[in-house]
Design goal:
The structure holds 2 protein chains of 2 kinds.
Chain A: E1 4-12, H1 16-31, E2 38-42, E3 56-57, H2 60-65, H3 69-72, E4 78-79, E5 82-88, E6 94-96, E7 112-113, H4 116-130, E8 133-136, E9 140-145, E10 151-156, E11 159-161, E12 167-172, E13 176-184, H5 191-200, E14 211-220, E15 230-236, E16 245-251, E17 256-264, H6 274-281, H7 285-291, E18 295-305, E19 316-317, E20 320-322, H8 338-357, H9 368-374, H10 377-384, H11 388-410, H12 451-456, E21 470-472, H13 477-486, H14 490-493, E22 499-504, E23 507-512, H15 522-526, E24 532-534
Parallel strand pairs in A: 1-2, 1-13, 2-8, 5-15, 13-20
Antiparallel strand pairs in A: 3-7, 4-7, 5-6, 9-10, 10-13, 11-12, 14-17, 14-18, 15-16, 16-17, 19-20, 21-24, 22-23
Helix pairs in contact in A: 1-4, 1-8, 8-9
Chain B: E1 2-7, E2 9-11, E3 33-35, H1 37-51, E4 57-64, H2 69-78, E5 82-87, H3 94-108, E6 112-116, H4 127-135, E7 139-149, E8 152-159, E9 162-169, E10 172-176, H5 188-194, E11 199-202, H6 204-207, H7 235-244
Parallel strand pairs in B: 1-4, 1-6, 4-5, 5-11, 6-10, 7-10
Antiparallel strand pairs in B: 2-3, 7-8, 8-9
Helix pairs in contact in B: 2-5, 3-4
The chains are: A alpha+beta, B alpha/beta.
Chain lengths: 548, 249
């Protein structure tokens, strides 16, 4: 028998939604002078270790949660001063859009450039001061159910299991954490969230979810090139026809800039490598002018849930809720998910607290949440942006962009029809016979780098002697089907070099270097055979992002 | 018997250390910090001795800013009984650390002091030896095995080319090497309990130690980057390059 602990609320994941939910719960409890036990489990070695985002943060939600956040020292120190939007025509040429032609949702006055990791570290301090128990280094690996089928809580993974499943010297059995309500805030494509979708058929009425892969680097740049508050977005080159996505470069504090590329995982070309696209992107004059002479100090990657309003699942089920990017609350028209994730957590906290305060012992579904959600600004905002993503997918960047300009600026997102996009991202990939190979330029070691030296900068680490956390449903598929059809695309979509096909005398062999994993979840999303399942490795493993 | 264990907050071993732009030191801003791995082994050894009945109490002490309480709490979660933080603004040099620890030893009167052989940030490997000298106590450094036999502690040391076992009168100082044990994980209930275990804060002034500066950090430099390799077309070219470019033959 595993040991167990009882809480009022257990939250899986110390990201913006989970932490905002925890803070909101305790604020209400303290106000009502009621004892409430709230615990957060976080698979990263510390809060913020696995958090990666652009990030431009709209302060709407934090204003509501901590109205005096500025005096409290929240790390939102760089207000956006200037927005620039580009379309790259080729490796040299670009068009800069005049501000008037930019969709309203892409204007950033009043927003802040920040490290979401540091924002989460700060939120965690606030949560702990309010009385929340936060346990970093513990991965929720299993959902526990009551006999009536409602969620009872989660179990943390066993620690100290060898590669072949034996108990090592350091073996420690996982623990059961029981709660009246469990909030799942794992972020995009959370692995428990994925099984909740199935268990409760949460996406029965929603469109297919869509994803992007974001790759990001943090750079120290020469002081004379640094313009704190400057925000650059753009799309076009190097992404070719049929591949949508966009890049960003933000000037943040301390002579640092962050640069990144988001590639929509609906891409079709099996030769495409998001990592290499990003590396060559940095040679474009618009980015190069800032990065040249600088030094890259961190690297990371994370998938993004971008299906928006149409793909939103049902967020409640008996005994729990799905919040933040685990449910897909990101507003893709703004490319922002922090304020929406936080708000979803806060709404969940309100519904949960009211139920517990009224004596509810859990097991029930919080029917009230839906009303709170629908009467919130969050719902209104997501609804207005509902056509943005599907328009890009359907009409491409140019026409889709024009549609979005008209939809957002002239009709305020209120056009009386909804575009749908129901083909899952993994089913988009076409055969290698439909495309020519892509020859990526060799990295120069100054602006562009190879994969392994990049992964090195993510500080990722996994205890070596443990079972592989990337599970293949069918061991043969990578070589028997994915290899001949797509030249095993995992080798290219994985931004961490986890997957390799090695030519041996006996033929090609599929190898998984799970220690490199950045927990971005792209393989779980994009594998054309849906044969890879990402599960949590031993707690504390994974990247250790400094301020990403 | 009481065991005193010293622990240090250091940059996490998974993190790639980065030098500040002005070369004044390693950049620790927003960097993940952790319990020094050798100190963690020291804590584990002390807890094992307590579990075996050989010790009755495990006290952990750390020197540093308030943040080092996190590492004391980690040690308490692993099973230590109480903590002492000696609050300083910066990490003191080895001799000052040893002088501060000597005062703690005088007050606590432990039967055994277990320390990491070195901290992975400064790699000095001297505090344990200095403390032994200041206290005039026997020392067993680089321990890969620690046994209490009668009134003595037997320490197996990893020396060049083999193992050496020595017997020390107690109280004694033991510094740990990597192979002494494999530290356990802290369990969730123990992490919660650790928050309520006693932790006292003292200052160098309380202990009557004057923090003199004996060394100064002049600069820190990153290793020079390795040049990319080249391909040669013939053995003649290889020999030519080895002779004239690399100048090794």
């Amino acid at each position: 028998m595993r040991e167990s602990m009882e809480f009022d609320v257990v939250i899986v994941g110390a990201g913006p939604s989970g932490l905002a939910a925890a803070c909101k719960l305790m604020q209400q409890a303290n106000e009502a002078q009621r004892a409430l036990t709230v615990c957060i489990v976080e698979k990263g070695s510390e809060v913020g270790a696995h958090i990666l985002s652009g990030a431009i943060i709209e302060p709407k939600a934090i204003n509501e949660l901590f109205p005096n956040w500025q005096e409290m020292g929240a790390p939102l120190n760089t207000p956006v001063t200037e927005d620039q939007l580009f379309m790259f025509l080729n490796e040299q040429k670009s068009i800069q859009f005049p501000n008037l032609c930019v969709p309203k949702t892409m204007h950033n006055q009043g927003n802040y450039i920040a490290s979401l990791g540091n924002v989460c570290r700060w939120l965690a301090e606030q949560a702990e001061q309010l009385g929340v128990e936060i346990f970093p280094g513990f991965a929720a690996s299993e959902i526990l159910y009551h006999e009536d089928g409602s969620v009872k809580g989660i179990a943390t993974g066993d620690m100290g299991i060898s590669e072949y499943g034996q108990q090592k010297d350091s073996y420690m059995q996982g623990m059961e954490l029981h709660a009246k309500y469990t909030l799942f805030a794992e972020g995009c494509r959370g692995h428990l969230g994925k099984s909740l979708y199935k268990q409760f058929d949460l996406d029965a009425k929603s469109d297919e979810q869509h994803y992007g892969l974001g790759i990001k680097e943090l750079w120290d740049i020469p002081a004379d090139k640094h313009q704190p508050g400057l925000v650059i977005h753009g799309s076009g080159w190097p992404l070719g026809k049929g591949t949508s996505g966009g890049f960003f470069l933000y000037h943040t504090e301390n002579n640092q800039v962050v640069a990144g590329l988001i590639v929509d995982l609906s891409y079709q070309n099996p030769y495409l490598s998001p990592f290499d696209e990003f590396q060559r992107l940095k040679h474009h004059p618009v980015l190069k002018q800032y990065l040249e002479g600088g030094r890259r100090i961190s690297y990371g990657a994370r998938a993004i849930t971008k299906g928006g309003f149409n793909a939103l699942p049902k967020m409640t089920f008996p005994g729990g809720l799905l919040i933040g990017c685990n449910s897909g609350t990101l507003n893709f028209a703004k490319i922002k998910g922090t304020h929406t994730a936080m708000k979803s957590g806060m709404l969940a906290a309100e519904a949960v607290f009211e139920a517990i305060n009224n004596g509810c012992e859990g097991r029930k579904e919080l029917m009230d949440f839906d009303n709170r959600f629908k009467s919130s600004w969050l719902y209104e905002e997501l609804k207005q942006s509902r056509n943005f993503g599907p328009a890009m997918h359907k009409f491409g960047t140019m026409l889709g962009g024009t549609f979005n300009f008209i939809d957002q600026n002239i009709f305020g997102g209120k056009l009386p029809f909804t575009l749908h996009d129901n083909k899952p991202d993994y089913a988009q990939l076409k055969s290698i016979h439909d495309y020519d190979t892509i020859e990526y330029p060799k990295p120069d070691g100054k602006l562009s780098f190879d994969k392994l030296s990049s992964v090195f900068l993510s500080n990722t680490n996994h205890e070596e002697n443990q079972p592989c956390h990337l599970k293949l449903t069918d061991l043969q598929i990578p070589i028997s089907y994915n290899f001949p059809a797509f030249l095993e695309p995992a080798q290219r979509y994985c931004p961490a070099g986890v997957y390799e096909v090695i030519e041996e005398e006996t033929g090609p062999k599929f190898q998984i270097n799970s220690q490199n994993c950045l927990h971005c979840k792209t393989c779980d999303i994009k594998d054309p055979s849906q044969n890879i399942t990402w599960i949590t490795p031993e707690g504390g493993g994974g990247p250790n992002y400094p301020n990403m | 018997m009481k065991i005193l264990v010293t622990v240090k907050r250091v940059i996490d071993y998974n993190v790639k250390a980065r030098v500040k732009a002005d070369n004044s030191d390693v950049d620790l801003a927003n960097t993940k910090m952790a319990l020094n791995p050798f100190c963690e082994i020291a804590v584990e050894e002390a807890i094992r001795l307590k579990e075996s009945g050989a010790a009755t109490e495990v006290v952990v002490v750390s020197i540093g800013p308030k943040a080092c309480q996190e590492q004391i709490r980690t040690s308490l979660a692993l099973g230590a009984d109480r903590g002492i933080q000696i609050e300083t603004d910066t990490m003191p040099e080895s001799l000052n650390a040893a002088k501060l620890l000597a005062k703690v030893v005088e007050a606590e009167q432990p039967g055994l002091i277990i320390m990491g052989k070195q901290a992975i940030d400064s790699d000095n490997n001297q505090t344990g030896q200095m403390l032994a000298a200041l206290l005039d106590m026997p020392q067993g450094t680089f321990a890969s095995k620690v046994e209490l036999i009668g009134e003595k502690v037997h320490v197996t040391r990893e020396v060049d080319g083999g193992l050496q076992t020595i017997a020390l009168n107690m109280p004694a100082i033991v510094t740990t090497d990597l192979r002494l044990n494999e530290p356990r994980y802290a369990s969730l209930p123990n992490i919660m309990k650790a928050k309520r275990k006693p932790l006292v804060v003292q200052t160098p002034v309380d202990l009557g130690v004057e923090m003199k500066t004996h060394t100064q950090l002049v600069k820190v430099e990153a290793p020079t980057e390795r040049q990319a390799g080249i391909k040669v077309n013939s053995i003649e070219e290889l020999i030519e390059k080895l002779q004239n470019e690399a100048k090794v033959i």
